[in-house]
Amino acid sequence: MSDRIRASHPGRRELLAYSAAFGSAFVARQGLAAVPAAAAQAPESPTPAPAMKKSINLWAFPYPDKWSLRQCLQVARDAGFDAVEPNFNLEGEFSAESSDDEIRAIKRMADEIGIGVSGVCSFLFWPYSMTHPDRDRRARGIELAERMIDAAALLGTDNLLVVPGAVYAPWLEDPVPVPNDVCERLARKAVQALIPRAERSGVSINIENIFANGFLFSPQEMAAFVDGFESEAVNVHFDTGNIMQYQFPEHWIPILGKRIRNVHLKEWDKRTHEFNLNTFRTLLDGTTNWPAVVEELDRVGYDGYLTFEYFHPFEHHPEALIYQTSDALDRILGRKG
Length: 337
Prior knowledge:
- This protein has helices at residues 3-8, 12-22, 24-29, 69-79, 100-113, 135-155, 180-201, 219-227, 249-256, 290-299, 319-332, and strands spanning 53-57, 83-85, 116-117, 159-162, 204-208, 234-239, 260-265, 305-308.
- It is α/β, with parallel strands linked by helices.
- It has an 8-stranded parallel β-sheet with strand order 3-2-1-8-7-6-5-4.
- Helix 6 (135-155) runs parallel beside helix 7 (180-201) and helix 8 packs parallel to helix 9.
- The longest helix is centred in the middle third of the chain and has 22 residues, at 180-201.
- The two termini are 41 Å apart.
């Protein structure tokens, strides 16, 4: 075989991918070399990044249906997490109904247990999108975001995850499409309105990358959007899983660089071809190149929280998910294995 032919011939990994997608018999009929269905791989050795801290979002817990907030914080601490990320709701223990004193009480509870708060997250950016066609809905979204800034400060964290807008949100019951240029204009207007409050409170508005909402598709677009505000109070909340259907987190990180203030870890498997909230997996049960992700984060000097975000607490033995995740994060960070 000539060097030119050999160089263009599919390698073992590529052949494995073809076999997985189409079947080994089909691949053989195309005149390609047959490959075994599975191949042993050498253990990965990720670049250690001990400065990064372990966090977990409360959506991974059976809260409030089965566990109290105190139970969640205690299990997270016992499992070895440095912090948790609570979700701001319309009503309940941590919500738009909560008084300042009630939120301060949550902070005291976390301090007593010995666990930090990595940031504040919320699903409310979807039903109350700040780019929704309905003006009242947009106004309510901005109002809620302002209260989230206050809540983050009361909890002692300087991180608020913000979804600035959406062209389309397919997971909503009745999603309303928004033209791209309108979405960008309204999103910029909304974030600009939040900046004064964020700067006074010492809270960073961290824009999250979400490929499936049709807005900010690339790291270049994300960087330009954030930089356009010329404020240290606007940064990036980088989510590894939200772009994995078509892209790769390790490619985004060098471009976003120092703009990254907080990180969500979500596992994705590129062998699946459907995007919804049920397709995310537990850490390591997917195709994310975690050694590359950690290496790139370390390279840009990131030393903040790595927060596992997952939407489906285990029906039985829910604590198992928390301990499994902690163990996986230790391995991803090179602390075990």
